[in-house]
Each structure stands twice: as structure tokens, then as C-alpha cells.
Amino acid sequence: MEKTRCSWANPANPLYLAYHDTEWGVPCHDERRLFEMLNLEGAQAGLSWETILNKRENYRKAFDKWDAKKIAAYGPDKVAELLANAGIVRNRLKVAAAITNAQAYLRLLDSGSSLDKLLWSYVGGKPVVNGSGPRPAKTELSDRISKDLAKLGFKFVGSTIIYAYMQGIGMVDDHAPDCFCRKARK
């Protein structure tokens, strides 16, 4: 029997189906994954999420498995290597943003906080579960988180990117009402 999924989940792409079925809308508290997803959502700006998802393993290799300490120390040679890597999106601003984000992330950790503590504090530790109807591209909450992350020094964290990030890390569950993932979590 075929599972009913959200309409955006491309049935021809096994990676995309696995992402929809096991990650999207599932609460995440793993720091490395939260950092990874923040950067991947930023890399997605102007592109499709499927494009980035298809390159995710390449990103993990290119960005030292999202080790923020290593990324924060990247210099011109590593940037040149990344910009020559056809396995990732070769955009100078997005590569620079990942380095800046690693530095901002390390400052956040040094302050005694974390992405997990910061992000989940906005929703009281519980995902926002939206009802039926159209899914927004951004919300007042994503506006607020976007501004707060920018104040902390993060880049490529506009409100639309942050709303997609919130969906990807499960702060928001926007699965369609008839999607098996929504039904499984009730």
C-alpha cells in the first residue's frame, strides 16, 4: 500500500523521500545537525531544497563533517578549494557565510548557550504543529529568530530561510493533514 505523503516529496528521489519520512518535521536537538541544517538552508537560498539535499554528503565531506572549530579557522586556501568543489554550491558568499556562521556558533557556545537551547526556547521546547491550509513562507516567529540570529553574527538567516530551517529541524510540523508522518505523530 502506497503511503500518503506531503505533495512536495518527490517520489522519484529516494533521498528526498527518506528526508521527508524521517527528518522533516521531526524535532532535532543534535547540535552538529542543527549547525549543519542552518548552513544547508542558507546554501539553498535561490535554489531548491532537493538540489541541496542531493549534495548533502558532498557538503559533509567538504566542510569537515560540520566541525565548527575547523570551519571557523578556514583560510583563503580552503575557501579556494571549496569554490572549486563541484559537489557543493560554489557561491563565494555562501561559503563565506558558513565560515562566519561557525565563528558565530562558537561564540554562542562560549556564552554558555547552544543552538538547541536558543532555538527551542522560542517554542517552549515543543514543536508548533500547524493545521490544514497553506503553509507560510515565513512567520512573525521566523522574523524574530532571523533578527536574533543576525544580531549574533549569523549570515544567510533571512526569515524565509529560517522558517524552512524550523520545518527541517522539527520546530514546526507542517506535514499535510493526510500525510502519514502527521498521522504517525498524533
From TrEMBL:
UniProt-listed Gene3D superfamilies: Hypothetical protein, domain 2
Pfam families tied to this protein: Adenine_glyco
MF GO annotations: DNA-3-methyladenine glycosylase activity; metal ion binding
InterPro entries, per the entry: Adenine_glyco, DNA-3mA_glycosylase, DNA_glycosylase
Residues at which Zn(2+) binds: 6, 20, 175, 179
Keywords tagged on the record: Metal-binding, Zinc
Tagged with keyword Transit peptide: no
One of the protein's GO biological processes: base-excision repair
UniProt signal peptide: none
Keyword Metal-binding: yes
Protein name, per record: DNA-3-methyladenine glycosylase I
Annotated source species: Duganella aquatilis
